[in-house]
Design brief:
3-stranded antiparallel beta sheet; 2 domains; DeoR_HTH; alpha/beta; about 40% helix; elongated; Rossmann fold; 7-stranded parallel beta sheet; Arc Repressor Mutant, subunit A
Length: about 250
């Protein structure tokens, strides 16, 4: 196996398993740990993985995206804390957009149920979770359903969304960076997210710390477009301060 084949194998393993460790990769490919570290360094330079202490995890891109089913199994306690803190920022909003994805779904479930709310969403999971809430009206955007995320996209969804004026949007992303803003792998998803921002008076990003510094294929917003960013304490305080200098309040929970 040559170097390129090994690096493709490492990337395939990371995408299949969700993360990889240096020791396990060295055993799997019968090479030295230092060789694996060099491979991971190259893959990170190419924007394909993010390195961690002792390993790496894959970056979502035009060629790779984790499914909603996988996301529901990872970092659930952190995502639940983020969702609760984001829901606390609702204020006097009466109409809310809730994005696709597992963390936004948790935000939707954390919204108060004792007051009238209208929730607009492209996510079938969000719509299903709120459908039985007595004081919540749910508007599900029409369009093509993406099987990986169980959410609607394309011009039907964005056109319907463009007809609303929404008080507050809870938005997720596959990556957020100070240089490139918020990104996602699929142009159709990016357009729905961008329209949600255009239709909303207030915007809040909710996402786990591993999203920060990651860059995917399609940019749909800048960091400064948001009033608040809610994440977990895994984001270093110094890095949170750098993001806050671009405009939003950064809340770590």
């Amino acid at each position: 196996m040559d170097t390129e084949e090994r690096r493709r194998g490492i990337l395939d393993t990371a995408r299949r398993e969700g993360s990889v460790g240096v020791n396990a990769l060295a055993d799997l490919f019968k090479v030295a740990k230092e060789t694996v570290r060099r491979d991971l360094h190259v893959l990170e330079e190419h924007g394909l993985v993010r390195r961690t202490h002792g390993g790496a995890y894959p970056v979502e891109s035009a060629g790779f995206e984790t499914t909603l089913a996988v996301r529901t199994t990872r970092n659930v306690p952190q995502k639940s804390r983020i969702a609760a803190a984001a829901a606390d920022l609702l204020g006097d909003a009466e109409t809310v957009f809730v994005d696709e994805g597992f963390t936004p779904q948790l935000v939707a479930e954390a919204l108060p149920q004792d007051r009238p709310l209208t929730v607009v969403t492209a996510s079938l999971a969000v719509a299903t979770s709120l459908a039985a809430v007595e004081k919540t009206s749910v508007l599900l955007l029409g369009g093509r359903v993406r099987g990986s995320t169980m959410a609607t996209v394309d011009h039907w969804a964005s056109r319907m969304l463009s007809e609303f004026v929404i008080d507050l949007a809870y938005v997720g992303a596959n990556g957020i960076s100070r240089e490139y803003g918020l990104t996602t792998p699929d142009p159709a998803v990016a357009e729905v997210k961008a329209q949600a921002l255009r239709s909303s008076r207030r915007r809040i990003f909710a996402g786990i710390h591993s999203k920060f510094g990651a860059v995917s294929f399609c940019r749909f917003a800048g960091v400064g477009d948001f009033e608040a960013i809610v994440t977990d304490a895994g984001l270093p305080s110094a890095e949170a301060q750098r993001y806050s200098l671009l405009g939003p309040q950064v809340i770590r929970v």
